[in-house]
Amino acid sequence: MRVVLGVAGGIAAYKAATLLRLLRADGHDVTVVPTASALRFVGEPTWSALSGHPVATDVWTDAHEVPHVAIGRGADLVVVAPATADLLARAAHGLADDLLTSTLLTATCPVLLAPAMHTEMWAHPATRANVATLRGRGVVVVEPAVGRLTGADSGQGRLPEPEDLLLQVRELLAGGAGPDRDRASTGAGPTEVPVEGAPAGVSLTSVPTGDLAGRRVVVSAGGTREPLDPVRFLGNASSGRQGIAVAEAARDRGADVHLLAAHVEVPLPDGVRTTRVGTAAELHAAVLDAVAAADVLVMAAAVADFRPDAVATTKIKKSADDDGAPVLRLVRTVDVLGAVSHARPHPGLLVVGFAAETGDETGDVRSHAERKLRAKGCDLLVVNDVSGGAVFGSEDNRVVVLAPGPDDGPAVEVAATGTLAKRAVAEAVLDAVVHTLAPS
């Protein structure tokens, strides 16, 4: 395959030399296109020797071959590593003031950008807007790694390791998108892909990469905790795995994700804005603030239904001469899902609820879920059967996604999964979201 390796002017340019060697070892014909600033970090002789091709940064070298057009047109993949904040801005705005940005404008193949910069630059609204713009055009922009940056700084902004970038390259090239195919972006259409955690031979239809690009998605995850006293609380067994899987999947599909995290037992994801909450009331306030400008709300958090009517200011102690236990009076917490569904901040907000249900003498899981869907007023309800303690804390899940039926009729089943890894379930839920959303 013909790969163009763009290198922007950042300290991480030295890692691109290792990526170049890996690409050559993989059998690819690699043309390196550095910026002038990149050559201040790694010189032209290094790139030429490792690639086996001459290196230029401007459009005037070998002008008779029209390199600013020919290089992009002839490539099967363009990779830029590192992609600095400046490079992302120029690419997002269609500037073409050197050979690399000109190549990006003329490339008809997939484009992979691997950002590397200080954390503050990556988190800046200008950079986030540029990334959203690029992803909206089908460009694959990978999330920077978290770790040591220049000097003593650390945080998100580190260039992913060359071995990890090579895996991304292999995945894109395996898609078969090259210069001979007529395509406007990497999101050319659905493909059948194996899903992690699915049984052997089972695959799910994935929607195109970037199908949530430009969308703002709010996801709640984990279990709320209602304090009894300074050291005790009422809580639940939610680990937060499913909600965090939804947040990660939405991020990887191009969304600008805001995660509202209650108590979780797994690491918080990189590349998303995160707000920590404790109680149902705190979650309610955070949701109202976050959804004001959101396109989608996914309420995967397990919200406590009850709280003590009074919270002791000191630890409730056992008495040596009293064998009894304190009697607690519980009151209802705010119904976050129902409150937001019925009083939406704007009509374009799509609300997705989660229902962990068990059957009882009044009905089975499905009948309880249908009643909840009508009562809550949400657009989609993700239902899982938690009888016997299933699902909570597990690596796997099994769900049915319901939508309101026409004319107040029975709910419509829009998706169902077998027992899959929670990330695979998250993808199925987001497939339903994408097909429900109005065009942007």
UniProtKB/TrEMBL annotation:
It holds the Pfam family Flavoprotein. It catalyses: N-[(R)-4-phosphopantothenoyl]-L-cysteine + H(+) = (R)-4'-phosphopantetheine + CO2; (R)-4'-phosphopantothenate + L-cysteine + CTP = N-[(R)-4-phosphopantothenoyl]-L-cysteine + CMP + diphosphate + H(+). It comes from the Bacteria. In the N-terminal section; belongs to the HFCD (homo-oligomeric flavin containing Cys decarboxylase) superfamily. Pathway: Cofactor biosynthesis; coenzyme A biosynthesis; CoA from (R)-pantothenate: step 3/5; Cofactor biosynthesis; coenzyme A biosynthesis; CoA from (R)-pantothenate: step 2/5. Its cofactor is FMN; Mg(2+). The keyword Ligase applies. Residues 212-434 form the DNA/pantothenate metabolism flavoprotein C-terminal domain. Signal peptide: none annotated. Residues 217-440 are annotated as: Phosphopantothenate--cysteine ligase. Keywords: Decarboxylase, Flavoprotein, FMN, Ligase, Lyase, Magnesium, Metal-binding, Multifunctional enzyme. Residues 176-204 are annotated as: Disordered. This is Coenzyme A biosynthesis bifunctional protein CoaBC. InterPro entries: CoaB-like_sf, CoaBC, DNA/pantothenate-metab_flavo_C, Flavin_trans-like, Flavoprotein. Catalyzes two sequential steps in the biosynthesis of coenzyme A. In the first step cysteine is conjugated to 4'-phosphopantothenate to form 4-phosphopantothenoylcysteine. In the second step the latter compound is decarboxylated to form 4'-phosphopantotheine. Its EC number is 4.1.1.36, 6.3.2.5. SUPFAM superfamilies: CoaB-like, Homo-oligomeric flavin-containing Cys decarboxylases, HFCD. Binds 1 FMN per subunit. Residues 1-171 form the Flavoprotein domain. Gene3D superfamilies: CoaB-like (3.40.50.10300), Flavin prenyltransferase-like (3.40.50.1950). CTP binds at residues 305, 315, 354, 372, 376. Residues 1-216 are annotated as: Phosphopantothenoylcysteine decarboxylase.
